[in-house]
Amino acid sequence: MKQGSVPDNFPLFNAHTHKIVPNELSIFQCVTTENAESVSFFSIGIHPEQATADCDAFNALFTAASHPNCLAIGETGLDNRYSHATAQEHCFIAQLKLAHLVRKPVILHCVNEWDRCRKLHHTFAPETALIYHGFTKPSILRNVLSYPNAFISLGKRLLLSEPLQQAVKEVPLNRIFLETDNDDCELKEVYKKLAAIKSLPLATLTKQLYQNYSEVFHHGKLA
């Protein structure tokens, strides 16, 4: 095997995407329960922007969350750009409880609310993995890493932001995932960038991130 090649048994893993890419091991973000059956693996949740006080969608959400191809709850969390803070917390807490019940990690959407997200997670689902998706903020990286069950998921911003690239150097590989979210970028390019930052062969990085996937999402087997 040539250095930098990707072994067949350790595919590139996309922790969060809104786009279906053939032959890619990915977790597709379902926005409704209807499209959950059309993808291999998915996450499902109520985004902070759509949060309401009554959360009528919870029954359908519970059914989808119990599906064997549902690997995570989310994206869900808190976002201070939206005014309905009480409804956001209500929905986030309900989904934390659901994640704990079905024993699946949470894909976290967090904008300027890390301390509150961490407190609610610690209260309602402390043993559940919390994957901070679309992570872009070097200023809070140490705070996130100090929380044992928190992971960061990096996407297109890693290709563009030198401060983020520098910050990621200190992040242990077993706390990292990579994603494309809804951005126009290739997953392999994000993998290549992280491999360069970490001065690792691409195959080594791929194996480690696949191991993260296997352990955190309780899916897949290491060869």
Describe the model:
With 223 residues, the chain is α/β, with parallel strands linked by helices. It has one domain (13-216): TIM Barrel (Alpha-Beta Barrel), CATH 3.20.20.140. Helices cover 36% and strands 18% of the residues. The chain has helices at 58-65, 85-102, 114-124, 141-145, 157-160, 162-168, 187-198, 202-216, and strands spanning 13-17, 25-30, 42-44, 70-79, 106-111, 130-132, 150-154, 176-178. The chain has an eight-stranded parallel sheet with strand order 1-2-3-4-5-6-7-8. Helix 7 (187-198) packs across helix 8 (202-216). The protein is globular.
Nutshell version of this structure?
The chain is of the alpha/beta class and 223 residues long.
Write the layout of secondary structure elements.
Elements: E1 13-17, E2 25-30, E3 42-44, H1 58-65, E4 70-79, H2 85-102, E5 106-111, H3 114-124, E6 130-132, H4 141-145, E7 150-154, H5 157-160, H6 162-168, E8 176-178, H7 187-198, H8 202-216
Parallel strand pairs: 1-2, 2-3, 3-4, 4-5, 5-6, 6-7, 7-8
Q: Main traits of this protein?
A:
disordered N terminus, 8-stranded parallel beta sheet, alpha/beta
The SSE string, one letter per element, is: EEEHEHEHEHEHHEHH
**How many β-strands, per DSSP?**
8
**Cα end-to-end separation:** 16 Å
Low-confidence stretches: 1-7
> What is the radius of gyration?
17 Å
* Broad shape: globular
Overall helicity: 25-40%
| Largest pleated sheet | 8 strands, parallel
Strand order of the largest sheet: 1-2-3-4-5-6-7-8
Question: How many separate domains?
Answer: 1
The CATH topology is: TIM Barrel
Find the structural class using helix and strand composition: alpha/beta
Average of per-residue pLDDT values: 90
Count every helix, treating DSSP H or I runs of 4 or more residues as helices: 8
Beta-strand percentage range: 15-25%
CATH class identity: Alpha Beta
Q: What is the CATH-assigned architecture?
A: Alpha-Beta Barrel
